[in-house]
Design a protein that fits this description.
- Helix content is about 30%, strand content about 25%.
- The protein folds into two domains: about 10-180, Peroxisomal Thiolase, Chain A, domain 1; about 185-330, Peroxisomal Thiolase, Chain A, domain 1 (3-Layer(aba) Sandwich).
- The protein is built from eleven helices and 13 strands.
- Strand 12 (about 315-320) and strand 13 (about 325-330) form a beta hairpin.
- It starts with 9 loop residues before the first strand and ends with a strand.
- The strands form four sheets. The chain has a five-stranded mixed beta sheet, sandwiched between helices.
- The structure holds acetyl coenzyme *A.
Length: about 325
């Protein structure tokens, strides 16, 4: 592939995540729906998830991440040029949750908007934010993935409600100091022909909120699990392999693969296609479940905290989700 034109490389200079305190185990869900710890663990790899308090919104988690990012990098809100929040569970339909973050951290110079790409949201947002660094338009872009999935779960739909959790994670993107580390390449896709297999239909302009939409449960996430599963198994592996190969690498060159955490079996299939040893694959689905736009930045932040990335390492992050959407970003890690 021809090298993309860019003046600078966009490097990740800080990572942070937030997980709510309340732990909800599979045993807790056994009390709500006809399920079992054994079924959930063997079919999905999930043991527990975190739920945010009922009276706290998604922005609470996104703001905690934003504050942590500033602290880690010794910056103030005024140092940030742009804030992108990837979410499908914003506080309100508008204004954007990113504007609430912007206000909370005093990022008075920054513009801010939300990006909706479900479980691919963080990967889409990182690739988007990086363009403003690469072009020279901005010095610092904050990218956050945050979702409070507990607000859209139907606890009468056992095949879906056991899969999700709440959380947030994020990064700061800046000009790479050495010109070598940073975003190498990305591959992103959407296929709007498959809207029916994964969606929340209520509350938008097609089905504005009404007693009827609530009675029909249209405000809940719905999915055809096996259709999404088959799609995710194919696409997560396909886009990951394509991106590393078109940049002249193989799985052996990767230091860390941070995949979207939807189902352990989807992750294992992708890792196998890339020939990755288990220690190269970041997994936290057992503790966090699927936090939608937040899975990848939470897992990345945990990996960084564990010292799993050193300068020069190759990092691949891949998301697949509603839209349908899917994509990968490939980074060389900096100092
Ligand atoms: N507990 C017990 N039994 C269950 C449960 C449960 N929680 N859920 C489903 N079952 C039953 C089903 O009713 C079915 O029973 P039956 O055979 O008597 O009809 C049986 O288990 C098998 O169901 P399947 O759907 O075939 O199970 P499968 O192995 O496919 O696993 C799952 C289901 C986990 C949902 C899987 O399909 C999956 O992970 N899909 C992908 C989900 C996903 O990634 N969604 C993305 C959303 S992210 C976003 O973009 C917002």
């Amino acid at each position: 592939m021809a090298e993309r034109e860019k003046r600078y490389r966009a490097a990740i200079t800080a990572t942070e995540h937030f997980l709510p305190e309340r732990v909800v185990t599979n045993a807790d869900l056994e009390k709500l729906v006809d399920t079992s710890d054994e079924w959930i663990r063997t079919r999905t790899g999930i043991s527990e998830r975190r739920f945010l308090a009922e009276d706290e919104p998604t922005s609470k988690m996104a703001i905690a991440v934003a504050e942590g990012l500033l602290q880690r990098r010794s910056l103030t809100g005024d140092d940030i040029d742009l804030i992108i929040v990837a979410t499908i569970t914003p506080d309100m339909i508008f204004p954007a949750t990113a504007c609430l973050v912007q206000n909370a951290i005093g990022a008075s110079r920054a513009w801010a908007y939300d990006l909706s790409a479900a479980c691919s949201g963080f990967v889409f947002a990182v690739a988007t934010g990086a363009q403003f660094i690469e072009s020279g338009a901005h010095r610092r872009v904050m990218v956050i993935g945050a979702d409070k999935m507990s607000t859209v779960l139907d606890f009468e739909d056992r095949a879906t409600c056991v899969l999700f959790g709440d959380g947030a994670g994020g990064v700061i993107l800046e000009r790479s100091e050495d010109g070598e580390s940073g975003l190498i390449d990305f591959e992103l896709y959407s296929d709007g022909s498959n809207v029916e297999c994964l969606n929340i239909k209520g509350g938008g302009s097609q089905h504005p909120p009404s007693h009827e939409t609530v009675d029909r449960g249209l405000h809940y996430i719905r999915q055809e699990g096996s259709v999404v599963f088959k799609f995710a198994v194919v696409k997560m592996a396909e886009v990951s392999v394509s991106l590393i190969e078109r940049n002249g690498f193989t799985g052996a060159d990767l230091k860390l693969f941070v995949p979207h955490q939807a189902n352990r079996r989807i992750i294992d299939a992708a890792a196998q296609r890339m020939g990755l040893a288990p220690e190269k694959v970041m997994i936290n689905i057992d503790r966090c479940a699927n936090t939608t736009a937040a899975t990848i930045p939470i897992a990345l932040s945990e990996a960084v905290n564990e010292g799993r990335l050193q300068a020069g390492d190759l990092l691949l992050m891949t998301g697949v989700g509603g839209g349908l959407t899917w994509g990968s970003v490939l980074f060389r890690w900096g100092n």
